[in-house]
Every structure is written in structure tokens, then in C-alpha cells.
Design brief:
By secondary structure, this protein is α+β, with helices and mostly antiparallel strands. Helix content is about 25%, strand content about 40%. The strands form six sheets. The chain has a six-stranded antiparallel beta barrel. It has a four-stranded antiparallel beta sheet with strand order 3-10-8-5, with no helix packed on it.
Length: about 375
């Protein structure tokens, strides 16, 4: 019987509210006055319900039927906000190797994708003419050394002239310098790897003539990789060197934990972003240069925060935020309205900066079905 009476009264109230909303075409002030009037009527109806419950003997705790709700017990927790941006893997060492001399290629020792070590010979250029010149120079130097030693002995024995001794010495030293220069030219016909890495591309073909400065091999280091990404200037105050990040590679189905190593101090005037760099640990060998990834940055962390789901926050006619909490009043669990102020939000949760205290019981499931002052029953507490 009690359920029927409550349902009839509630339906009638809702019908009046619906009719009032449909017919209301006045100003905002008129609507607010109408809403206030309806709320007053609702309180009067609630009072009549309580009287009828007492008359029917339904006021005893043993027979009362209250709305079951779930509540969230407020406890201080750590609030973290993340931003997610796109990034790209780059090598800290990526160079195009070129020749120092003009000569045809006589030997290519690597191919695209080859792994090489520092100092490894990659390409040999034709040095036949230089080699022949060096043999001739060695013969001349051998004779010059012989003449120098002879003139030196004569000079020491006071049997030769000083001019002849100095000429022999100068001739020997000149040939030694020419030999050293020739060896350097011959060495220039060899192209070595300046560091360990992977050959991205071998540009010329065997027998092709290359010129000084002409790129012949693109080499990339794979042991010193980094991720670069551009971040909106809106986050310039919250992203610092050392900020924690998570790098996700969809193709590899794995993620890497790291920290921001470099934060640019300049803003790109075109897209209003600044660049960050993140080092990839040397133990990670499955990542390749130019690979795309997503970067998840923990830009804000606030300890001891009061956090609630955003969908629990309601607004009154004055646009003030509030939540419903469960309170013990005269031995009954009753719905109370608490006005709050909020701050940062992320992923469906928001910080309550004012209005909530530790151990407050915020109504979660059922919050859209209750009203202030209503007696309820807590089904579960989280």
C-alpha cells in the first residue's frame, strides 16, 4: 500500500513538473521562481509521505523500504595527469659519408642493412697511381738516406763540406714529407665507419667515379637512439627535464619507461610547440630509427588530493557544483548536498579543492535518483 501511495504521489509531482516545463516560456527569472515553487511542493509532498508512512506503521526500521545506493569513501590519493603525443625515433648519430678524393670505386665491402663496427673499411677507391708513386718515392728515399749517412760521416770526420751535408739532409727530409703526404692520400682512398651502426644506404655502384664531398654511404648508429616529439606550448610550465614518460610502439606491442632528457627552450612560431627528447635505454634493441611511437607524459602529479568521478558532480540553478553524500542524522542514513569547488581533471576524474573531507561518503550508484533529505540505505562502500 505504501509503495502505491508513494508511486502515485511521485508520478503526480513529476507530471506537474513536466507540464510546467512544457508550458514555461517566460524569462529565466520566471523559470527560477517556478522551479523554486515546484521544489516547495515537493517538500510538502515528502512531508505528506512521511505522515502517511507513520499512519500505516511503515516508519519502523523493520518495515521501511529505502533506496539502496553505493557510496565512495573519500580518502586522500595521488592525482596524476597525462598527455599523449606522437613521437619519432631518431639516432643521435646519423651521417652521410663522402669521399675526400676523386677516384673510381674499386671495392664495396658492405650493403644496405649491414651492421658495421667502428673503424671497419666500407669502400675502397682506386689508388693504383698513388701506390706506384709511393714505390718510386721509396726508392728515391732509400738513395737519399744512403747519401745522407755518407755525408754525415764525412762531416763528422771533418772530411766533407757542410754544404754537401746540409743538402743531403734536406733532400732526405723533403722526401720523407712527400712520403707522409702520399700515404695520407692513399688512406683517403679508403672510407671507414666512424662509429658502430647500420648501413642505411650504399649510394654509388662499383666502378662509379665519385667526387670529393659526394655522399657514398648513409650510416646510422643503433646503440644511441632517442625519441623526439613536439609538445603544445600550453604545457611548457608542467613539462621539465626528468619528467617520467611511457613510450608505446604499437607494431612491437611493448612499451618503454624513460625520462625526458632534453626540453627545448624555443617555441616553434609556426605550430606553437616546443621539442623534447627522450633517450631510449641501450638494452632495447628492437627499436629502429624513424619508427613512429606514442609518448605518454606524466606532466602533473599532486599528492593527497580529494578525487571523485566527474559524472558525480551536479550543478544547481546558479551553476554551483555539488555532490550528494550519505550522512547519519538521528540514526538514519540521509542524503545531504555538499557544495564543492573543483580543479584539474583527467580521464574521468577531477580534484575537489574545497567542500569534501576525508571519510565523506559520496553517493555513486543512485546519485541521480536521490534528493536532499531523503532517507537511504547503503548497499556497498568503495
Amino acid at each position: 500500500m505504501k509503495k502505491i501511495i508513494i508511486s502515485i504521489i511521485t508520478f503526480s509531482a513529476l507530471f506537474f513538473v513536466f507540464q510546467a516545463c512544457q508550458k514555461s516560456e517566460g524569462t529565466q527569472d520566471t523559470k527560477r521562481n517556478e522551479l523554486k515553487k515546484l521544489k516547495t511542493q515537493m517538500k510538502e509532498i515528502q512531508a505528506k509521505i512521511e505522515v502517511l508512512e507513520k499512519e500505516l506503521g511503515g516508519s519502523s526500521s523493520s518495515n521501511a523500504e529505502f533506496l539502496n545506493v553505493n557510496v565512495l569513501e573519500i580518502q586522500p590519493q595521488t592525482f596524476k595527469r597525462f598527455i599523449e603525443i606522437q613521437g619519432k625515433v631518431e639516432s643521435s648519430k646519423a651521417v652521410s659519408l663522402s669521399s675526400k678524393v676523386a677516384a673510381p670505386i674499386t671495392q664495396i665491402y658492405v650493403s644496405n642493412g649491414s651492421s658495421v663496427n667502428k673503424g671497419q673499411l666500407l669502400i675502397q677507391l682506386d689508388d693504383a697511381i698513388l701506390q706506384k708513386s709511393m714505390q718510386e718515392l721509396l726508392t728515391s728515399l732509400e738513395f737519399a738516406n744512403l747519401m745522407y749517412e755518407k755525408q754525415k760521416r764525412l762531416w763528422e770526420q771533418k772530411a766533407g763540406s757542410e754544404v754537401q751535408y746540409l743538402q743531403a739532409k734536406n733532400n732526405k727530409e723533403t722526401l720523407e714529407k712527400r712520403l707522409q703526404s702520399l700515404k695520407e692520400q692513399i688512406e683517403s682512398c679508403k672510407i671507414y665507419a666512424p662509429f658502430s651502426g647500420v648501413v642505411d644506404e650504399v649510394i654509388p655502384k662499383l666502378g662509379e667515379l665519385v667526387s670529393p664531398g659526394f655522399p657514398v654511404i648513409k650510416l646510422t648508429a643503433i646503440s644511441d637512439l632517442k625519441v623526439i616529439a613536439d609538445v603544445s606550448e600550453a604545457y611548457i610550465n608542467s613539462i621539465k627535464q626528468g619528467t617520467n614518460v611511457t613510450i608505446n610502439f604499437n607494431e612491437l606491442n611493448n612499451s618503454i619507461e624513460s625520462r625526458i632528457s632534453v626540453v627545448s627552450r624555443a617555441i616553434n612560431p609556426i605550430n606553437r610547440t616546443f621539442r623534447i627528447e627522450i633517450k631510449i635505454p641501450g638494452s632495447i634493441n628492437s627499436v629502429k630509427p624513424n619508427q613512429l611511437c606514442s609518448v605518454k607524459i606524466n606532466d602533473i602529479t599532486i599528492e593527497n588530493s580529494m578525487v571523485v568521478p566527474i559524472n558525480l558532480i551536479k550543478r544547481d540553478e546558479n551553476n554551483k557544483e555539488y555532490v550528494y553524500i550519505a550522512s547519519e542524522i538521528n540514526g538514519k542514513t540521509t542524503v545531504s548536498k555538499k557544495y564543492i569547488k573543483t580543479g584539474l581533471s583527467y580521464n574521468g576524474y577531477i580534484i575537489v579543492t574545497e567542500g569534501l573531507n576525508q571519510n565523506d561518503l559520496v553517493i555513486t550508484d543512485g546519485s541521480s535518483e536521490v534528493s536532499e533529505g531523503q532517507t537511504i540505505q547503503i548497499a556497498s562502500k568503495n
